[in-house]
Amino acid sequence: MKKINTQGITDIGQLDDSDQWYWGMDYTYGDLYEAEQLFKQNHSIQKNRLILVHYPDGEVIEPITLKDGQYFGCPIFYDNQVVLLVVDFMEEKINILSYNHQSKQISSIACLSLSIAEDCYNLILHKSPLMLTRSPHNNIFQILWPEQIEFEIENTESFSFASCDKLYFSVWYEDPDYREEVIVRDKNTGKIIEKFDGTIKTMPDGQNWILV
After folding, report:
1. Where are the beta strands (DSSP E) in 79-205?
2. Which residues of 73-87 are buried (b: 16+ CB within 10 A; e: fewer)?
3. Who is most buried in 1, 61, 119, 141, counting CB within 10 A?
């Protein structure tokens, strides 16, 4: 039995596509969107904490200590590095950073103006390639970085992954029985290329399986 000192962050989950990294975060002010709404209401937003736990040794790493007014989104594992999403409400910036475990260094991938997003609702990092996306309330899907693309999707549709110029989405229906479909869209126009029954499952090594 191994005791891991996470300094109070006891809910950790595995980073997708990684067999060696787990992560956890405190939610003092809720998720990223909820923290943003509190900030807009003139509340004083303190920093939140994000930890990485390395398997199997149990090493706990806090890659960055934020300043008050800064807040983490969910990280991802990409190109053998942990990619971090940090929003700075005070400076009105979105920072995409990478953590290299071998060098213990943090590098900046992109620094974006917060104005590219109406708000932080469903502001999420995706891959591959690495991209910043947003799915607001009004059935619109947006790629905010490294390019800006926007198109309409169905009410229950959610983005899964990209492959070349194709974007793969999952959508569910109750008509009346519950079922799921995969929708393949053109990245640039959002036009539906293909639609078929199935469920997308991303495996630990990065493969995307279509379960039918």
Report:
1. 81-88, 93-100, 105-113, 123-126, 131-134, 140-145, 149-152, 157-163, 166-174, 178-186, 192-197, 199-202
2. bbbbbbeebbbbbbb
3. 141
pTM of the predicted protein model: 0.90
On the CB side of 29, CA atoms within 13 Å amount to 23
Token readout for 101 is 């475990």
Instruction: Express each pLDDT in 187-206 by its tens digit.
Output: 999 999 999 999 998 887 77
Hey, how many other C-beta atoms are within 10 angstroms of the C-beta on 153? Answer: 19
Distance in angstroms (rounded) separating the CA atoms of residues 33 and 37: 6
Helix (H, G, I), strand (E, B) or coil at 114: helix
**Residue that is written with structure tokens 């109750």 in the block:** 174
First to last CA, the chain: 40
pLDDT tens for 83-136 read: 999 999 999 999 999 999 999 999 999 999 999 999 999 999 998 789 999 988
